[in-house]
Amino acid sequence: MVNAAGRTIPDLKDLGLIGFRGIEAEPLQKTMASRLVRSTADYPADGNKRVESLKAALKNAGLRDGMTISTHHHMRNGDALASQIFAAVRELGVKDVVWFPSAVFPCHEALIPYLEDGTIHHIEGSLNGPLGDYASRGRMRGLAILRSHGNRYRSIQDGDVHVDIAVIAAPSSDHFGNCTGAFGKSACGGLGFAVADSEYADHVIVVTDNLVEFPCAPWQIPGNLVDQVVEVDSIGDPAQIVAGTTVLTSSPERQRIARLAAEFVSAAGIVREGWSFQAGAGGISLSFVVYAQQIMEREGIRASFARGGSSQYLVDMLEKGQIGAILDGQTFDLDGVRSLRENPKHVMTTPFNSYNYHTKGNFASMLDCAVLGATEVDVNFNANVVTHSDGRLLHGIGGWQDALFSQCTILAVPSLRNRVPIIRDELTTLCGPGELIDVIVTERGIAINPKRGDLIEAVNGSGLPLKSIEEIQEESERLAGGKPELVQREENLIGLVTWVDGTVIDTIQQVNTQS
Amino acid sequence: MVNAAGRTIPDLKDLGLIGFRGIEAEPLQKTMASRLVRSTADYPADGNKRVESLKAALKNAGLRDGMTISTHHHMRNGDALASQIFAAVRELGVKDVVWFPSAVFPCHEALIPYLEDGTIHHIEGSLNGPLGDYASRGRMRGLAILRSHGNRYRSIQDGDVHVDIAVIAAPSSDHFGNCTGAFGKSACGGLGFAVADSEYADHVIVVTDNLVEFPCAPWQIPGNLVDQVVEVDSIGDPAQIVAGTTVLTSSPERQRIARLAAEFVSAAGIVREGWSFQAGAGGISLSFVVYAQQIMEREGIRASFARGGSSQYLVDMLEKGQIGAILDGQTFDLDGVRSLRENPKHVMTTPFNSYNYHTKGNFASMLDCAVLGATEVDVNFNANVVTHSDGRLLHGIGGWQDALFSQCTILAVPSLRNRVPIIRDELTTLCGPGELIDVIVTERGIAINPKRGDLIEAVNGSGLPLKSIEEIQEESERLAGGKPELVQREENLIGLVTWVDGTVIDTIQQVNTQS
Fold this sequence. Notes:
The structure is a homodimer.
Chain A: E1 50-51, H1 54-60, E2 68-71, H2 81-91, E3 97-101, H3 112-116, E4 120-123, H4 129-136, E5 144-146, H5 149-157, E6 165-170, E7 172-173, E8 179-180, H6 195-200, E9 203-208, E10 228-231, H7 252-267, E11 275-279, H8 283-299, E12 303-310, H9 312-319, E13 326-331, H10 334-342, E14 346-348, H11 351-354, E15 369-372, E16 376-378, E17 383-384, H12 400-403, E18 409-412, E19 416-417, E20 420-421, E21 423-424, E22 439-442, E23 445-448, H13 453-458, E24 466-467, H14 469-480, E25 489-498, E26 504-511
Parallel strand pairs in A: 1-10, 2-3, 2-6, 3-4, 5-25, 6-9, 9-10, 11-12, 11-15, 12-13, 13-14, 15-18, 16-21, 18-22, 23-24
Antiparallel strand pairs in A: 7-8, 16-17, 19-20, 22-23, 25-26
């Protein structure tokens, strides 16, 4: 069948999935997932839920073959918990576990042996780096079902995904399970990605390397949702939180892109008193923040709030009074952790607040602008953020789809990557529909989506290098020596890209290992 | 039928209720209440949910005859919202609304005309003062179903009570509905009693007299759960928060009771490094805190946490480092409000965290001691907290039942009230089973529940005036000139006292208006 985005989707009834139906379709579910009623009579009256090891906790939780275990990426590339979990699962002789992480990082290459030996059946979630490459080569059993951060929350809330056992890495916890990421030797900031799991999983295990006196106050996740608490030597290395996608770009070309994006929002009148913005992970987005700050400083403009990925750059603006609040989805560096802990206007948000599409509004659509990356864009402004043009699934989907709902969504991207034009006639993988993508900023110029006549008019006469998307495409094709070809892939399906409402917007095939 | 506490209960199948089954019975429900899935597509993309009036908001919410509207008592006797709501309901011509407040106060006498004219069918909840008297005289249609704070949360969570429209009075809110009680001219502290309603009601209206720029950060209730926001001139008078039950006792007799309670916990070894305590509303309980503080100061002891009703007394201890944290259930005075706002170790908790019996443990059972009041106690340590010996329903049930789960529950009560002995052979109304009540402290002496041999041994030789409960009963009967008679009441049922799990522990009859 062909879905509402024009992509061909196989019959996925067995997985309970259907194709994308357009961006404003009604929810498929009438009621949220049912949750079991518990009784305090079944938990220790003194609140002490400590058990001696992760292995014992998994056993107490009734771990069986085929169950789903979830984890979260607050420690980013410093995570040391997932490996400990699956070592314990293997020791218990349990097989075919579905791993449901909120994101994976290069450090999780260490889990490939558990996929190989059958301990893990498949990873249900966004993949990147070594695990994405592994799946792309058809090595993983089961499909990588890619869900954005908001969609991951929604999928748990709506009951698409049932988590049997959630394991939450907590930089500080008390013996009851009240826990936070704001304190402790492994402080990572917010624990927002674990909130859905804490609410809906059958069994919740908190693992900490900093057990504190009750109450661990203020907590981010209440112990009332927690079954067991385990103390370990280390949940990870917080220095590795600043990994990959959270350093400023040093490339002059990418700096130009970031500067053009900032000049665009300024010229379009978006940078005005009380405006709001979001900058995603990635060097260009982070550099955009620095340029935007310069404009705001020059013009004496204050933003009402910024969404992030909090970083030293946003923290600096908050502390200077240039933004009213940081609504923090995940903490990208240690300045962010400190600010989240100390500044009441630096608020931990969760994918529920920011991104869940199935609630009474979320923060994403309130943003005046969001500056995001992409791996490919087509001439209709549709975009890809997960696969490379060689077909390999190398990037996490993050909150990218959710953030597309901002009032002005800008993809700030180089026109060529490894000499391959990123503006194409057809995408390798569709992740976001063009009707939600307003502007493409490249080092060669800025293309505004024709449906945004208001933006075109607003920047008329600004002196910015405005071009049609076809013009930028032609220029880059000229430089590259022709159009990029659509990669040939195997028939074998290795992943599904789902939309924020859980429908399937595209498929990902195994790469052609002969080519 | 006779329930597990020995009280006769009529057949309540039509109400979906059954009799008390003992204190550790399994939950009646397997799964929590189902909740509707919403879509952000149905809410304003810019987050602005303001409507022009409460009346318009109720109309938009689809208010119909017989629906249930909930409110909350954070403004205590200063509440000005309930009257505004029912004035609007009456203007809309809607009848037979069930009002589901988290508590009522004397100011709510103003709602009697709405009960009289059929706007309100009945009040489903704890009653006291003028409304309790009104119901006691058989004037209210429908039953007052008394639920403790924890049981109110549980009843919503488990689906016993379905709230059609929750109206939340918010001292500060933004246009999206992110709201808090910590700031604003009507700042009242925490909004914890509204959390269940915000999560489970079909429709949520936030009413504020301080609309702030988005985001209202930090919020206590997220706007993602809110349908509409209404601005009004005033939600109430915060000076009236300190109402009735939140001033120190000035009676020498009651001060002696408070002092004896403090000396008891000290002698029993409960006041030790890292201990925890809860003192309820009421002059004796508050005075207990002051005496306990003196002991702690003298002996250099620090408590790990205190639960309250936060007041200037707890705040003082927190600021002096005598307690590690305040887990605040409701804010009893303006010092409490300030501290909640400024001190990260003064944490807003909700009935979910503190008291919900149907979750993975709550804070109540972790307390080393709780000092509470009562209107009557029987010789088996069963107690009443809602009716007077004349049968009238004059006191709210509050979190009293929930707090009974502490490791040492002390009822600190005068032996006589208006010359009527409070220790009786039989209670007018049973609210709490004696197996959860450990100590009765009166001005005439201290009676320890015989099942607490450990406590009896611990205070052996302490010089405290220890007596059997029968001795205190006899002394007070001698002074009163005899045993109190059990009041004769009409057959007509006017209320039900439910236990923390939702079962019916006792009934309340109409008072005999002839006598």
